[in-house]
Structure formats: structure tokens, C-alpha cells
Amino acid sequence: MIVEFHAVDKRYGKVRALQGADLTVPRGATVGLIGPNGAGKTTSMLIMTSLLARDGGMVRVGGIDPERDPRAVRRHVGYMPDFFGVYEGLRTREYLEFFAATQNIRPIARPAVVADLLALVDLEDKADADVNTLSRGMKQRLSLARALLHDPELLVLDEPASGLDPRARVQLRQLIAELNRMGRTIVISSHILSELEGICSHLAVVDHGRVLAEGSVEEIRARLSTGGRVTLRVGEASTELAEEVLRSQAEVSAVTVERNLLRIEFAGDDLTSASLLAAVVGAGVLVFDWRVEAAGLEELFLHITGNGDGAPPPAGVGA
Amino acid sequence: MNPVARRELQERFRTLRSPLLLGTWVVAASALTFLAYVYARSSAESSLSSLGYFNLGTLFASTSMGRFILHSVLLGLLTAVLFVVPGQAAVTIVGERERQTLPLLQASQLSAWRIIVGKLISALAFVLLLLVATVPLLVIPVLLGGVTIGNAVAGVGMVVATAVMVGAVSMWISSRAKSVQGAVLGSYVVAVGLVVGSLALVLAEVYLVGPAPEDLGPMRIVAGVPRDSGRELYTAWLSPYVGLVDASSNVLDFRPDVVDSPYTPFWQVLLKRQGFAAHSVDDLYSVYGGLSGFTMGDGIFVEDLPVGGPAVTRPSATTVGPIRGAVWLRTLLFEAIVTLLALAAAARAIKVPRRRLRLFRRKEVPIAS
């Protein structure tokens, strides 16, 4: 594990931003820290990056306590906050060279490092542009390049896609996926869950300062037993038979029919889905297509946080 | 080079603002020097013409004019620095906060001290450039005589030391301020407080606390020199102006001054400390001139000025040894302490705080691997 939180507390005056938060980030994973505004995501990230002191609990980043040796932690961590700090009148290349100097990168190595990163984030043609003139998407990519200057093994990205247009969002997602393929561990937060869909291997659901669930996306789906939806296409002659068979299965909660397309909702996991398919085929139904739709992040999140209606999360959700 | 200082300097000198400010500064300093020269010359002409030396003021009074110009320019520089430095230094840290760049620096490998020192260097580098641009003007009084290069260097040194202190204090205020406006206002209040407050304290100590028992006691002759024991004026250590005057002139070097130096009020304070009530050789002459027993080198002697005018009896220059050590060293020490404390407080303010110490802190539970 590259990041370990155990019973971490943090207060801002009377507000408890984190209350006994437990979190682990496996090396090489892309962990989505999801939760509503004010859930404790940014606080967790600041503690992780040694920019905030915790009030209690235990934290290790790369095996190091950020409070005891913050500079050692900062060597391992690249941080991209949810804002973009601009210095007046600096060009893109100068901006990165300045931050390279703050990361103690030797002067002789800086031009090459900066050129490589500009290429990585596709800003080579903007190297001599005033930072202030860059679009928001470009600034976010530049911010990511800044976080990568000292080649950290852990990247902490706080709401990186916030305020981006769809094209810039797609570019950023591709970049993050590429960085993960290059071996970096990534912790990424967002309250827009669709942004994280498809790029996160792991999730940590945070609400009211607590980590309500964490693990790989599949593990969480399985643990929550949220079930799923299946859309199947059958031969027109066997539509009625298929509906009859499916309705007779205890796990199936709903069946809707539209010509030869049937949509079912069921409780269970992939094994349940497979047994349902076997039952339908066994009854002699001609099945052309069987498509399982897994629960999306939003569905998982609502399930974990009690549908956002203040209701307690379901039992067994905790990590 | 400190990366923060380098970037700030790069940013500062890329715009037209800096050359414009530098040009304005040089013009203003030149104007001040010229006005000081014109005033000194007219004052010298006027004084000497009353003694019968018509139109020879600059010839007979060049040393006095040199002192007047140097002292005026140094006092002007110190005052200007007290106005310029807070404006430069107060925006440094709070500006990073407003631009949201401070967390980016904190997340880097730079320590809080390196950030603070870089900021101080960048804030003061420009002020130092302004002072360097003024150096040629200080050569004029040295050429006129009456002052040495040492006086000019010591004076500029004190101005620089004061600039560093005011810069450090302004940065501390900047590190605590919520807005740029608040930081600038607070820094100017503190700078003015340092100047006016320290002078008020000196005056209070001189006049309100009352004289020491021996201050107005019977006159004593020490090695042929008339003096009382004086008394230490502790508040004088705190005043940048008194420190500047003490560093760039010798208050116990009595000589006839045709043009009164702007240092005169500060000399009165310093003389009080060294045990003299007089502030010029004329005063000494009027008090002690009639006393017998003084010989060359021991104290004051009286001579007739050479021929060329009506017979005038004036005292000559004389130097008296100090009773107490230099004030400027104490002022430097005070400024160094304030500078270090302010920088430490500023560094502390931008450092990521650790957990507050608690008497009964919850024991850390190890993570099960």
C-alpha cells in the first residue's frame, strides 16, 4: 500500500472534516475518491500530501509519516490542487522551469524535463505562450505537468476535470489513464462521478468525514450486492416463453418486454446472471444477445450513502 | 540562486514599472542633492557675508556644505526606504495566497525558510538597486570635504540594515494578513510606528524621565576636557535615525559649522548620552571658551582665523573621546534581532503546522499489514 490512513481525524474549529477515516491506496492503482462537496475529500488529500496536519489517527505515505518527514513525502507525491496558481507574465516553459527549481531539479536537467512534460501534456506549441492566456483545459494539463516535474510515484489530483469542456475532459482522462499505464499510482477526487467512470480501478466513497466503502470497483459492486440489469434479445417466437421463465426466477425483480427485447432487473452478481441465462436457454428460448449492465458509480454511490436522503448506508458497506 | 527570488526578479524587471520607478528615484534623489547643495551654498554665503567674507561661501564653507549635503541625502534615503520597503515587502506572502500559489510552493521541496528568504531577497533587491543608483550622488559631499567615504559607506550600511529590518517585519505582517491591502496598511503603520514611535520614546526618555543625578551636576574636567558623565539613553538604540546619525558622523568631533547640519537634533540626543550639553563647537566655546588650561589635542583651544577679514575669534575643531560605546552598533544589534524574529515568525506562519501538543494525545494504533 502506498497510502494508509487509520482512524484519521481532522477538525476545522467545530466542524469535523474527517472522523476516524480509514483508507488504503494500493500501489499502481487509480483510486477515485468520491463524495459530495464537504465530504472530506480535499482534507484527505491535503493530509496525504503533507500540507495539512491531522488531529488524530495514523497516516503513512510510502511508509513515511507526513508530519514527521514532510519533505520526504513531497518527494514521492505530486499534487494538483483544484485551483491553478498563476504568476503574472510567466511563459509556460518558464512556469515549469520555476517549479522544477523548487523541486530541486538541477539547472542542467530542467530544460529536458520541461520539454518532455510539455510533450506529454501536449502543450509543446504553447511553450512560449503567457500562462495567463491558456485555456482552462490547457491550464489543467499544465498543472498536471507541474505535479509530474519531480517524477513522483503518487499523483494526487483534486477535482482535475472541474470546469472543463467535454473535449478537454476526454483529453485529461486519456492523460490520466496513460500516466497510470506508466506505473504511477493516482488518487483522484471528484463529485461528478461520471468523470471517474472507466478510469478508476479502485474507489473510496467519502461522506461526512468517513470512508464508507473502499476497494476495487468490482469488489464494491459485489459487496453491495446491488445486482444488475440485463437486456436480452430473443427469437420473436420465444419471447413469451422467455418472459415466463424469467418471471418465475426468485432473483428477478422486474421484467419489461418490448417486441423481442426483454429487460430484467435482478439481485445478485455475475454468477446469478449466468444461472439466469442457463435457465432461459435450458427452457428452449433462442437467445441472440445477453447484455449485462453493471451498476454505475452514481448508483453505487447513492446505494452506499443511503440515496442521499440522510438515511444511513446499508449494513456491510464499510470497507 | 534562490528560485523564488529569481522568479520574482524575472517578473519584476520584465515590466516597464521597474525602470520607470528607478528613473523617478534617481531624479528625485538628484533633485534632493541639488536642493541640499543650493541651500547649503546660500546659507554659507549668507553666514560668511555677515562676517565680511563676501561671495566666498563655497570656498570657506565647502566642508560644512559637504557635511550638510551628505547628512541631508542620508536622512532622505532612510526616509524614502521606510516608505518604499513596506510597499515592496508587504505584498509578497499575501500575494502568493491571493494568487493561490502558496500551496504549490509549500508542496515543493522548498523549506518555509527558503521561501521567506527568497521573498526577502526579491523585495530588497529592488531597494538595494535604488540605493546603488544613489551612490554617485554621495560622492559629491565626499569631494566637497568634511566627510569621508567611511561616513558615506557607514550611512548607506545603516540604511540597508534598516531596510532589511522593515522588509522582514513587513513580510511577517504579509504572512499573517488576509488581504494585500491589509498587509500594506499594516506594514506602513508598523514602519511609521518604528520611526515616530522610537523617536517619541527617545524624547520621552530625554525629557520626561528626567535627568540622571550626574547629568546636570557640576562640570568636571577629564584629561583637560570639560564634560559630565552623561547617561545611557536606551531608547536611542531603537531609533534607525539616531543609529544612522551615529554611524555616519562623529558627534564628538567638534568643529565650526557654517551651515547647520540636519543631524543637529540627533546630535543633541547623542551628546546628552556622551555627557555634553553642547551640540557644536560654538556652544562649547561659549560655555568653556573662557576657561583656561586647554591645550591643543586635549580639548578646545581658541585661535584667531587668518587675515583677510575682521578679527574674529572662533574655536577650532577638536575631537573628544567617547564615554559610551557607539549607538549604531546597538541599533544594528536591535535591527538584527527584530529581523530574525520577524523572519522566523513569517516562516512559521507559512509552514504546514504540526499537530498541537496535547497532554493526553491518543496513542497511535499501528496499521495491520
Describe this structure in words.
The complex is a heterodimer of chains A (319) and B (369). Chain A is an alpha/beta fold. Chain A is built from ten helices and 13 strands. Chain A has helices at 41-48, 70-76, 92-102, 110-120, 136-148, 166-181, 217-224, 239-247, 270-282, 297-304, and strands at 3-12, 15-25, 30-34, 56-61, 77-80, 154-158, 185-190, 202-207, 210-216, 228-234, 252-258, 261-266, 287-293. The model of chain A is unreliable at 308-319 (pLDDT under 50). Chain B is mainly α. Chain B is 62% helix and 4% strand. Chain B has helices at residues 3-12, 17-50, 57-60, 62-89, 92-98, 102-106, 112-144, 149-176, 180-208, 240-248, 264-274, 281-288, 327-350; strands spanning 220-222, 225-227, 253-254, 302-304, 313-315, 318-319. Chain B has a two-stranded antiparallel ribbon. Classes of the chains: A alpha/beta (319), B mainly alpha (369). The A-B interface holds A 4, 6-7, 49-58, 60, 67, 70-71, 74-75, 77, 79, 81, 83-90, 94, 98-99, 101-104, 146, 150 and B 3-4, 6-7, 10-11, 14-15, 99-111, 352-355, 361-362, 364-367.
Measured distance between first and last alpha carbons of chain A: 15 Å
Tell the overall outline of chain A: elongated
Structural class of chain A: alpha/beta
N/C terminus separation of chain B? 44 Å
Instruction: Outline the biggest β-sheet of chain B.
Output: 2 strands, antiparallel
Topology as H/E string of chain A? Answer: EEEHEHEHHHEHEEEHEHEEHEH
Arithmetic mean pLDDT of chain B: 77
The level of helicity of chain A is 25-40%
Number of strands of chain B: 6
